[in-house]
Fold:
Amino acid sequence: MPATPPDVFLLPGPVKMDPRVLAAMARPAMNHRGPEFKEVLSDIRTLTQYLFGTRREVAVLSGSGTAGLEAAVTGLLRKDDRVLNLVNGKFSERFHDLCRTFAAATALQFEWGSAVNPENVAAAMEAEDFRAVTFCWNETSTGLTNPIADISKVVKAHDALLIVDGITAVGGLENRMEQWGIDALVMGSQKCLAAPPGLSAVALSERAYASLHSDTSFYLNLKAHVDALAKQDTPFTPAVPLFLAFREALHRLKEEGLENRIARTARLADAARAAIRALDLELFPDPRFASNTVSAIRYPAGIDDAMFRKVLLESHRTIVAGGQDRLKGRIFRIGHMGICSSKDLEAGFRAIEATLAKMGHRFERGAAVAAITNQAENE
Amino acid sequence: MPATPPDVFLLPGPVKMDPRVLAAMARPAMNHRGPEFKEVLSDIRTLTQYLFGTRREVAVLSGSGTAGLEAAVTGLLRKDDRVLNLVNGKFSERFHDLCRTFAAATALQFEWGSAVNPENVAAAMEAEDFRAVTFCWNETSTGLTNPIADISKVVKAHDALLIVDGITAVGGLENRMEQWGIDALVMGSQKCLAAPPGLSAVALSERAYASLHSDTSFYLNLKAHVDALAKQDTPFTPAVPLFLAFREALHRLKEEGLENRIARTARLADAARAAIRALDLELFPDPRFASNTVSAIRYPAGIDDAMFRKVLLESHRTIVAGGQDRLKGRIFRIGHMGICSSKDLEAGFRAIEATLAKMGHRFERGAAVAAITNQAENE
Structure:
């Protein structure tokens, strides 16, 4: 049974957790309607507002990221509402699938690895009326960050609701949700916050909160969740251990400071990209839109995905992610969000160097790790 | 911040957990698409079938009991499908509210504390056609177990689908779901299994599995969850720590033996009822249908609910539940399911005796605790 966990954990979610976040879970049963859990929920509400950079309404749901997206979509849209889904990767495609289930959804497709082009969005919105627009702020599948400010400007000019998957963005990328006019922004616990998987949070604009309806949702009734949290309560039994860990991870974030974490994530991403260049490898996405929370890297010719990740894991106790769907076998992905450190990245690239060298890829040995070390020393 | 947890934890869910179940959660991040988690899911599938006493399809969802009910209802019914909800307490009422959101639901009401009367169900089903019938096997709010075999007989005679809330029943009450013809049976992790809250499981009949549709659900798409689990996978990011704890709690159950746990739960319930009589108190529900997993007890005249539970908690570090909705202030409730032991019950009734005596209720001191001790010694 369970081998010891990998030493270097660089998946783009779930991500490495602080031991104090893990320890917060292993607590005897708690009455989730009692004063102690009310205090937990009170902390969580305040700290979740801090995480999102908003004083408006937030909800924390006992369900993973997709549950948060569904709560936002079913709370804001009805079956006949027209929604435009901007699709440029696996997660925005899934978001489109979700929207097709609950509304009248149209996909506007972009090449995977290319950013959403706001001009195309404008053209689509001029051609047809949409009540809402959705996209993935950070497309984890392609390691790409969409130009959220520019997209928002277009959507707001057409007065549509803007529902954003920020699952691997919130807490890792600079966020101006109120300024940009985002109506619903969703995050997942196991990404930039570095809490365990299983919870999602949603932050709402004033307008979005005012237009929430409860006609087509029950467990994920967003209005019920928002209103309950404002009274330190939950509409249904919450996943108590995950809430305890979520609170601890929020405290951990607050101690570091949101701005500091975002800046540190950006520096780590720069270091990762320098290391990738040093390995004579290329990013998968358009480099102008390379994500700061996850790097997606093209395999050089002759490097087999399964073998590469097997050697990394078995010989170097290092875990990275492969590509998904049409990108399977073509890329690998490294998460550098949450509490990931220069040391983690150094260890990861040391393992990647050794593995690529063993598999016959040619590059200057030591340069990738040195790129990260130099960056860390300059801090 | 957090006071030490109560010493005697007798809520009707969440319930006391084994330290090994708690410890299973505090594990570093795990790749939920890797071989180790596949093994977790494989164990969970087999052991969940054991828990339900079925070899048919099961699903485990990252969402609490209500999520399991919603998955069953949205997977089996459509908006225009007529469903009859048998209502005799808070949780069956909530189940009706859920069904009204997703189908054409009619409630058949019974007095809270009375059992569902199968004759009334037969009359309702003769008067109108229903595609499905729902009820709470064990009404946690009133401490009552509905006559599931008799209700099932009526429903099956009309060839309707039978969707059962077994949240505080499965793993604690004798279960013959295949023989009775239950089409969908839902349990919650934090009840008779004594795992943390946040997961639910659904077991399906062959007929139910064959008629699952995916038109109106996404995160809780039951077919997707069932089919994924059969391949040791999940359709969306699972709440990994809760799955690890769930598996550990299932192992713990298997070690005790399902039949043994059910028999032990019945003996504990007998002991609790003897203790309640010794305190000169009365059960709230019709005693012919008193639940083996939770006892609901009427307050004697002059005992204030809030004061009673405050003294219990603060002076005796013992937690029990109050009544809900229309029963608030009128009853208190004790859970005796999961890994609850005679020792727990003894300690709980010792505290209850002391508290009632202090508050002026008259009874033979020591008799309640003695009733439990005697029962335990006879085992």
Remarks:
- Chain B has two domains: 8-14+258-377, 19-256.
- The mean pLDDT of chain B is 97.
